[in-house]
Amino acid sequence: MIVYPNAKINLGLNILRKRKNGYHDISSVFYPVKECVDILEIVKFDTFKFVNSGIKIPDGENICEKAWKLLHKDYRIGNVKIHLHKQIPIGSGLGGGSSDASFTLKALNELFGLNLTNLQLEKYSVMLGADCPFFIDNRPKLVQGIGEKMISIDLDLSEFEIRLINPRIHISTEEAYSRVVPQIPELNVNEIIELPINDWKNILKNDFEDSVFLQHSSLKDIKNSLYKEGAIYASMSGSGSVIYGIFEK
Questions:
Q1: Total domain count for the chain?
Q2: Which of 152, 170, 200 is the last residue of a domain?
C-alpha cells in the first residue's frame, strides 16, 4: 500500500497563552497543501522494519514506528515494512512528520481491516503529536487548544496558486516557542479568514514571525520578495522556516 502524506500551511497563527504544563494554547487555520507530499509505502512483513530515503530523518525511533506500535499494542496487528521517502522539509512548519504519523495510522487501519473511525484515529494521533489529528480528516480546520480542538471550515483556495519557498533553515519548534510572547489578538483568526483574501495582508498574523525574523532576517526578506512578485498574501508557516505566498493563478 502506497499513500502520500501531504503538507499543510498555517493561515494565521496566534499564540494565546502558556499553560502550566508548558504547552501553549493556539488559534490557527490549517490548510492542506496536497501538491507537496512524502511517499509512504507499508506492506505486511515477517518482522517490523523501517526504511528511509530522500531527506534524511534523525536517527532513533521514527514517528511512523510509534504509530504502528500504538495499534499493535491495542489490536495486535502484524509486522510491517515501512518505507518513507521524505520530501517535505524537516523543521519547516509544514507538518511533514505529523502527516507521516497520521497517514501511517490510516494506512494500517485499512491494511489490517480495523474499521476504526476518524474520531478513533484522531485519539491515537494526538498521542503522537499536537498537529497529527488534523491530517486524519485532512481538510481545512480552525485549530485551537494545543492542536486537539478542530472545527471544520468552508475554505477553498483551489483557484489560487500556493507557492512554497524553502530557505533550508531548520528552526526548532521548542526554540521558537521559547521566544514568542503570548497575546490575545484584536481579531480572531476565524473572523479574519471569512474576509476576502485581499484583506488578509495586514491583519492575518503568524505570531512566530516577530521573534523568528529577528533571528533569521533572510526569512523576512523572502516574505517581502513574495509580495513584490504579486502575492495576495504571504506568511511563514507554523514555527518556520518555509515561507509561502498565495497568488492568483
A1: 2
A2: 152
Given 106, 131, 141, 207, the catalytic residue = 131
131 labelled catalytic: yes
Model-level pTM?
A: 0.93
CATH of the domain at 213: 3.30.70.890
CA distance 208 to 206: 5
The catalytic position among 8, 86, 106, 223 is 8
User: What is the tens place of the pLDDT at every residue in 105-155?
Assistant: 999 999 999 999 999 999 999 999 889 999 999 999 999 988 778 999 999
Domain of 178 in residue numbering reads as: 160-248
Handedness of CA 112, 116, 120, 125 (dihedral sign): positive
Model pLDDT for residues 209-248, shown as the tens digit of each residue = 999 999 999 999 999 999 999 999 999 999 889 999 999 9
38 has catalytic annotation: no
Rounded (10°) CA dihedral 102, 113, 51, 39: -60
Q: CA-to-CA distance for 139 and 133, rounded, in angstroms?
A: 11
CA distance 54 to 233: 31
